[in-house]
Design brief:
Blueprint (H helix, E strand, L loop, with lengths): L3 H8 L17 H25 L3 H20 L2 H8 L8 H19 L4 H27 L4 H25 L5 H20 L1
Helix pairs in contact: 1-6, 2-3, 5-6, 5-8, 6-7, 7-8
C-alpha cells in the first residue's frame, strides 16, 4: 500500500506534479479534485491496515465509515474526465476511467458487503488498491522510461497478476481462503482481454 505513494508521484510527475504551484497546462479544477480525492483514498488504504496492526479497531471502524463519503466522490471525480474523452478525437480511451470505475465499485461493494468477515473484507480492499496501479504504472512506462503505451499497459497487467498470484500462494501456504483473490484476478484478465480487443 505504501508503495502507491512513490508510484503515484512518479506516474503523475510529468503531467501534474511538475506544474506545481501554477498548474497551467491542461489541468482543470476537476483534475485537482480527482487528485485530492484519490490521494485521500490512498492514505485510507495505508492507514487502515496500520490501525488494525496496532489494535485500533474502533478507530479503524470510524475511519472506515468515512469511506462511505470518500468513495462515491472518488467515483464521481472520474465523470468530468469521461465527458472530456467522449468529446475528444479518441473516445476509445474512455475504456480506462470506465473500466477502472467498474472495478473499484465492484471491489469496494464486495468489501463493504463482507465488512463483518475480516478476511474477505481485507482482500477486496486490496483489490481496490490494484486498480490504482494502472494509472501509475501506465504513466511511468511512457513518460519516465519512454516505453510504448501498449506494452506498458500489458506489463502493468503482468505486475498485477504477479501480486495476486503471490497473495494466492501465500494464502494457500497458510491454509486461508483465497477465493476473493481469484475473483479479483479473473476481473483483471477480463480487463486485459477487453483492452487488447479495443486497442
Amino acid at each position: 500500500m505504501i508503495l502507491l505513494i512513490p508510484l503515484t508521484f512518479l506516474g503523475f510527475y510529468k503531467t501534474y506534479f511538475i506544474q506545481f504551484p501554477n498548474f497551467v497546462e491542461n489541468v482543470t479544477t476537476f483534475i485537482h479534485l480527482h487528485a485530492i480525492i484519490a490521494s485521500i483514498w490512498i492514505l485510507l488504504l495505508i492507514a487502515q491496515p496500520l490501525l488494525i496492526i496496532n489494535r485500533k479497531n474502533q478507530l479503524h471502524r470510524k475511519i472506515g465509515k468515512l469511506s462511505y463519503i470518500v468513495f462515491p466522490i472518488l467515483i464521481l471525480s472520474f465523470v468530468p474526465q469521461m465527458l472530456r474523452i467522449i468529446n475528444s478525437d479518441a473516445p476509445q480511451i474512455l475504456f480506462f476511467p470506465l473500466a477502472d470505475s467498474v472495478l473499484l465499485i465492484l471491489f469496494y461493494s464486495l468489501a463493504i458487503y463482507n465488512r463483518r468477515t475480516v478476511s474477505k473484507h481485507m482482500r477486496y480492499i486490496i483489490g481496490t488498491a490494484t486498480v490504482f496501479l494502472g494509472p501509475t504504472i501506465g504513466r511511468i512506462g511512457p513518460h519516465i522510461l519512454e516505453w510504448s503505451e501498449h506494452g506498458t499497459q500489458n506489463l502493468q497487467y503482468g505486475i498485477i497478476y504477479l501480486i495476486l498470484i503471490g497473495l494466492i500462494f501465500y494464502d494457500k501456504k497458510n491454509k486461508k481462503n483465497y477465493r476473493a483473490y481469484l475473483l479479483i484476478l479473473t476481473t483483471w484478465v477480463i480487463h486485459q482481454i477487453t483492452f487488447n480487443l479495443i486497442f
